[in-house]
Design goal:
The structure holds 2 protein chains of 2 kinds. Chain A is of the alpha/beta class. Chain A folds into 2 domains: 225 residues, Rossmann fold, CATH 3.40.50.300; 57 residues, 2-Layer Sandwich (Alpha-Beta Plaits), CATH 3.30.70. Helices cover 36% and strands 30% of the residues of chain A. In chain A, a hairpin with a 5-residue loop joins strand 1 and strand 2. In chain A, 40% of the residues are buried. By secondary structure, chain B is an all-alpha fold. Chain B has one domain. In chain B, 81% of the residues lie in helices and 0% in strands. In chain B, helix 3 packs antiparallel against helix 6. Chain B is globular and about 60 Å long. Classes of the chains: A alpha/beta, B mainly alpha.
Chain lengths: 313, 258
């Protein structure tokens, strides 16, 4: 069973003084996220990521379409008890302490009082917030608030977790910790749906990603699938400081760096390249197929959509 | 009562209590009660009248200011600061949020009124040296003031559910002023004709009738307040509050939280 099914959700806002001019924030979207998956929702600022998340959380009403979470209608309160949500740049009641805030959210999520107290201590430790008892949230740094945000999202042990830009505001160490936490959530069998524009995070974490731009899905797939739409090239590395003429004849682009040479050449030439190195008695160190990075794929998709938009205009 | 409403109300109460502006307002109201004692002392023979009049007026005015001041931000501040996102993404229905907020603010105002009333009774005891049987009517006046707070509270929430805090404050305060002269408005409507009469009558019945809830002067003169008026005012306040809250819920249920 899919954990999240987005069935044609779309959103058009009416803008202008008389609210008569339509502005499409999200074109009809169809997306299915499997149970236990870490799913990355990628796109530049203003692409429609937050609008999609807000619709799934019931904060914004769709113009059309529906969604199912854990097999049930997404507006069902029972479903909401099973999901956790971290909004982008979260802000909380600053007159409360983190413990009071989590206690309040625990009450609203129906966590029994006996369990709540221990659970609060556990999740705060899990997000690396210790020794903050009695400290009001108004005194928290941006990074600490982000951690509180993550804590409140996982407090009630939800089955599906939605994070909107979870690494935002965190230092490199904090980002690493959140990545570990997301991995841990996956190991616990939870489904994680997170939006980000930091592609390295998505590449490192996600089982699958979707790319959204100008309110439209531009691509969905496993990171390996998307990035192995290989350029059709391989990189050959050998020990030495010389480039054999036979290698140049194969059309290789070579770079000498210290005691090694790196050559990029068409995949079809890889056997010929190995033969050439053998003939010259050069030691082969590595032969790697060149994969498109997620970033390259992402940029290509965005450029393609801009070109298409330009042409159609 | 639904437990989620209780949790939201308790959190709203805690927010208001921890808000320093609230303490300033209470201090100011107590100061006014002190002023009532002073004015009472220089008002020979009518000390009691002056203390009850000024004291209850202070309780009413500052309670209304607190109700408007906090009420207008109850929803809009939560949207603006995005604190609402993490509440409504839980199994909380939008109407529960509005009703919880209302009860939280109402509880805050009742507690404030209680402390300010202690100030009024202390001032009265100071100038009159003892309580008279007729002073029990002060409790009725306080009860009516609390009913007034409930209406203002629900109106502030209604405006807060669709407009900015500034506009909400203007709307709520304007309605409070107009409502305080509701009897005069009805009198004016009776004197006019045609379309003007129709509009004035509609306006007179639409705005909250705070005139009927104001028995401060009557109580200060130690006149009794009838049981029928108490029942009538209670039903009126409950009806008006429920209507305004229903309006707030209807608007908020349809609102996109962008």
């Amino acid at each position: 069973m899919a954990a999240i099914e987005i069935l044609g959700l779309e959103k058009t806002y009416m803008v202008g003084f008389w609210r008569k001019r339509p502005k499409r924030a999200l074109k009809p979207m169809h997306l299915s996220i499997e149970n236990g998956e870490i799913f990355g929702f990628l796109g530049p600022n203003g692409a429609g990521k937050t609008t999609t998340l807000k619709m799934l959380m019931g904060l914004v009403f769709p113009t059309a379409g529906t969604a199912r979470i854990l097999g049930k209608d997404w507006t069902d309160p029972e479903v909401k008890a099973q999901i956790g949500f971290l909004p982008e740049q979260p802000y909380f009641y600053d007159y409360l302490t983190a413990h009071e805030l989590l206690d309040y959210y625990g009450q609203l999520s129906g966590v029994p009082s006996g369990v709540r107290k221990h659970r609060i201590v556990d999740v705060l430790a899990q997000v690396g917030l210790n020794d903050i008892k009695g400290m009001q949230l108004r005194k928290f740094s941006k990074g600490m608030l982000q951690r509180v945000g993550i804590a409140q999202a996982i407090l009630h042990n939800p089955k599906v977790v939605f994070f909107d830009e979870p690494m935002s505001g965190l230092d490199p160490l904090g980002r690493r910790e959140v990545r570990d936490l997301i991995e841990q959530l996956k190991q616990e069998g939870k489904t994680v749906f997170f939006s980000t524009h930091i592609l390295s995070d998505a590449e490192a974490l996600c089982d699958r990603v979707a790319i959204i731009h100008q309110g439209e899905l531009r691509g969905v797939g496993a990171v390996e699938e998307l990035t192995s739409s290989v350029q059709g090239k391989v990189e050959v590395v050998w020990q030495g400081t010389q480039i054999p003429a036979s290698m140049k004849a194969l059309g290789a682009e070579c770079h000498i760096s210290g005691e090694t040479v790196r050559a990029t050449l068409p995949e079809a030439q890889q056997d010929a390249a190995i033969d050439a190195l053998r003939r010259e008695r050069l030691r082969l160190i590595a032969l790697t197929p060149l994969r498109t990075s997620l970033e390259a794929y992402f940029v290509e998709k965005l450029q393609h959509s801009q070109t298409t938009a330009g042409t159609s205009a | 009562m639904n437990s989620r409403i209780v949790y939201i109300a308790a959190n709203t109460f805690r927010e208001a209590v921890r808000d320093r502006v609230l303490y300033n307002l209470i201090a100011f109201a107590l100061l006014l009660s002190g002023a009532a004692i002073f004015v009472g002392q220089i008002s020979i023979e009518i000390e009691r009248l002056v203390v009850v009049n000024l004291g209850l007026a202070a309780v009413s005015l500052f309670g209304v200011v607190i109700a408007i001041f906090i009420g207008i931000g109850l929803v809009s501040k939560e949207i603006e600061k995005r604190t609402l996102y993490t509440v409504l993404s839980r199994p909380v229905r939008r109407w529960e949020f509005i009703v919880g907020k209302f009860f939280g603010l109402a509880a805050t105002l009742v507690v404030n009124a209680f402390f300010m009333a202690i100030g009024v009774f202390a001032a009265l005891l100071y100038v009159a040296h003892k309580f008279a049987a007729a002073d029990a009517m002060i409790l009725v006046a306080l009860y009516f003031i609390i009913l007034e707070f409930l209406i203002i509270c629900s109106l502030a929430l209604l405006f807060s559910s669709f407009s900015s805090p500034l506009l909400s404050a203007v709307f709520a305060f304007s309605l409070f002023v107009i409502g305080s002269f509701a009897d005069d408005l009805r009198g004016f409507a009776a004197m006019t004709h045609g379309l003007t009469r129709w509009i004035a009558t509609a306006a007179a019945y639409l705005v909250p009738n705070f005139s009927t809830l104001n028995v401060i002067s009557s109580v200060a003169h130690q006149h009794p307040v009838g049981g029928q008026l108490i029942l009538q005012n209670t039903l009126y306040a409950v009806f008006y509050t429920v209507m305004a809250l229903s309006g707030a819920v209807l608007i908020f249920e349809r609102r996109n939280l962008k």
